[in-house]
Amino acid sequence: MNNLLNIKTPAENEAKALKADYGLLNHGLTDLRMVYWNLPTEALYEEIAFRGEGRITQLGPVVVNTGKHTARAATDKFIVKEPSTEEKIWWGEYNRPFNQDKFDELWSRMQGYAQGRDLFVQDCYAGADPEYRMPIRIITEHAWHSFFARNMFLLPKTVEEYKRHIPDFTVVCMPGFKGIPQVDSSNSNTFIVLNFEQRLCLIGNTQYAG
Predict the structure, then answer these.
(1) I need a surface site. Which of 83, 117, 195, 207 has the fewest CB within 10 A?
(2) Per-residue buried b or exposed e for 74-90, using 16+ beta carbons within 10 Å of the residue's own CB
(3) Quick one: which of 139, 142, 150 has its CA closest to 107?
């Protein structure tokens, strides 16, 4: 839901309760309407229902419609080809190279698209061992994707841990944003582009969250 009317949502009062000091300005995301930081499960349920993103079914599961993409868009996945990964990727049909300049242009347009919108952030960890785990950040346009990320990864345990969280890798998922094949050299309007040098993944025009 693009909250153009500036309607107060159920979780707005707690949107900043678990905000990290390392904010979205560090990702170049500015002029946002509201950022919902690390909402707990209960608050995400309320936001999902309020925004009409899905239904709460008997005994509690959330049911959503992922649109035309009901599985991975394997042919729309790209990896930025740059010196640090050029010799380490098995390039081919499902690991297609992507130009660095095209990536920067795509990210710039996504940053523009985000302005004036609500975004949801989940600061998490990939990996259980504290010595080897990777701090990550999932930035999403939809509350249910934030709920999915919260269920998929490991969570900080204290308010102070949330406050100090700095991601080593960031995923930005904006299903409402479409790529332009003629401009981006993408296969279609859908894209999943990984940039290992910038430790950033961009996802657009797909609601599938698998």
Answers:
(1) 83
(2) eebbbbbbbeeeeeeee
(3) 139
Question: Residue 187's pLDDT is what?
Answer: 87
CA distance 70 to 51: 21
CATH number of 12-204: 3.40.449.10
Rg (CA), the chain: 17
For the chain, the domains span: 12-204
Q: Are 91 and 7 in contact (CB under 8 A)?
A: no
Q: Which two tokens stand for residue 98?
A: 């992507």
Nearest to 39 by CA among 64, 18, 23: 18
What pLDDT, in 10s, does the model give residues 50-88?
A: 999 999 998 889 998 887 776 677 789 999 999 988 999
